[in-house]
């Protein structure tokens, strides 16, 4: 079997990193008004689609309006989560100087707070991508997606609970940084609720908004609006689960040992980002709806670059990878998602680490 990734010497690793740094510097100089105009259009699209969706649901006594409302609201939530919120919170548009698009102030329409996301995702995941014991995004702590992870009998159930997790993915994001193991003698419910009060406040607001306030405003259409809001949230969770898992847990992605946290020589971080990520091919609309996380490799290499530029960067990143013998992991959504499903089912059972 041909190795997926050529082992690089220290000098090759340094030159690989230097090539990525040069590309980063070049595109950084190009960022400007066009990027600002783009994200403002995205911001408006989220608002308008949200208004259209909620208004249509209020009129759902006319059957087609329920489906229109769910579709528009789901689109608004997906775009808010993926192309707007995720990328703004990364600070990609801080250069604009707009408080509504500032990475440290932006709050999105999802159960999890942006403050928690900055800690678990922006810092932990992007600093320690796929490093065991450091990156909490590896199977979100309860799904075995790599053979190198220690096997436990309860993983036998993961094909089942992973299926339900996909429908409630935003809950995984919201509760990700909570310590679910209380101190001996501590009331479990009090232990959970005393942690991170900001997170619980956000959860209460989101649940109240979608499942109480808007349904009550609909009057006799309460149940119809309630069901529509629930459907939109489930659609958003399913889509986000698929895109994120396809970007991290496909056949060619690599889990790094805990010792990799000490590999801080020039270029080593870039090598880990390439080996720990996978792309999904598709058209412009698909890339947009994925928040351009279909370009997961570019996102991991350049998290501070506006995501709408990843398609521009991709051919050059692919060329650099080819030059240094690093597989540029990319494939259709159907292929990548099949590999994710296979990994979840295969690693539910004991499995041996593979050779890369």
From TrEMBL:
Tell me a Gene Ontology molecular-function term this record carries. oxidoreductase activity, acting on paired donors, with oxidation of a pair of donors resulting in the reduction of molecular oxygen to two molecules of water
Q: Which PANTHER family does this chain map to?
A: ACYL-COA DELTA-9-DESATURASE, DESB, FATTY ACID DESATURASE 2
List the record's Gene Ontology CC terms alphabetically.
Answer: membrane
Q: Where is the Fatty acid desaturase domain?
A: 65-330
Single Gene Ontology BP annotation = lipid metabolic process
This chain belongs to which protein, by name?
A: Acyl-CoA desaturase (Fatty acid desaturase)
Keyword Transmembrane helix set for record? yes
Ordered alphabetically, the record's keywords are: Membrane, Transmembrane, Transmembrane helix
Pfam families found in the cross-reference section? FA_desaturase (PF00487)
Domain of life, source organism: Bacteria
The organism's taxonomic lineage, starting at the top: Bacteria, Pseudomonadati, Pseudomonadota, Gammaproteobacteria, Oceanospirillales
Query: Where exactly are the transmembrane stretches of this chain?
Result: 51-75, 154-173, 211-232
Does the UniProt entry include the keyword Transmembrane? Answer: yes
């Amino acid at each position: 079997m041909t190795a997926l990734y050529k082992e690089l010497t220290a000098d090759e690793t340094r030159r690989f990193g230097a090539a990525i740094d040069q590309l980063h510097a070049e595109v950084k100089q190009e960022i400007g008004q066009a990027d600002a105009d783009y994200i403002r259009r995205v911001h408006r699209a989220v608002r308008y689609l949200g208004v259209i969706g909620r208004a249509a649901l209020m009129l759902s006594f006319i059957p087609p309006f329920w489906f229109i409302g769910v579709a528009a609201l789901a689109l608004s939530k997906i775009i808010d989560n993926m192309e707007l919120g995720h990328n703004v919170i990364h600070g990609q548009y801080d250069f604009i100087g707009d408080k509504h698009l500032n990475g440290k102030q932006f709050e999105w329409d999802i159960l999890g707070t942006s403050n928690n996301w900055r800690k678990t995702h922006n810092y932990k995941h992007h600093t320690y991508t796929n490093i065991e014991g450091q990156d909490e995004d590896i199977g979100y702590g309860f799904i075995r997606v790599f053979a190198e992870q220690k096997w436990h009998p309860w993983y036998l159930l993961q094909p089942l609970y992973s299926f339900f997790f996909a429908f409630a993915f935003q809950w995984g994001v919201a509760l990700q940084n909570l310590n679910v193991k209380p101190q001996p003698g501590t009331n479990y419910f009090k232990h959970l609720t005393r942690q991170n009060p900001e997170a619980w406040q956000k959860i209460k607001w989101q649940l109240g908004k979608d499942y109480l306030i808007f349904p009550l405003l609909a009057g006799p259409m309460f149940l119809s609006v309630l069901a529509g809001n629930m459907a939109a949230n489930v659609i958003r969770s399913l889509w986000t689960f698929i895109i994120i898992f396809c970007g991290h847990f496909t056949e060619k992605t690599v889990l790094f040992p805990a010792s990799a946290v000490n590999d801080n020589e020039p270029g080593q971080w870039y090598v880990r980002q390439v080996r720990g990520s996978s792309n999904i091919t598709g058209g412009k609309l698909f890339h947009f709806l994925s928040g351009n996380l279909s370009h997961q490799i570019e996102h991991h290499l350049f998290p501070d670059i506006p995501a709408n530029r990843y398609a521009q960067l991709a051919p050059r990143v692919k060329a650099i990878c080819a030059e240094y013998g690093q597989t540029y992991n990319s494939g259709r959504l159907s292929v990548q998602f099949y590999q994710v499903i296979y990994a979840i089912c295969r690693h539910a059972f004991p499995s041996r680490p593979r050779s890369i």
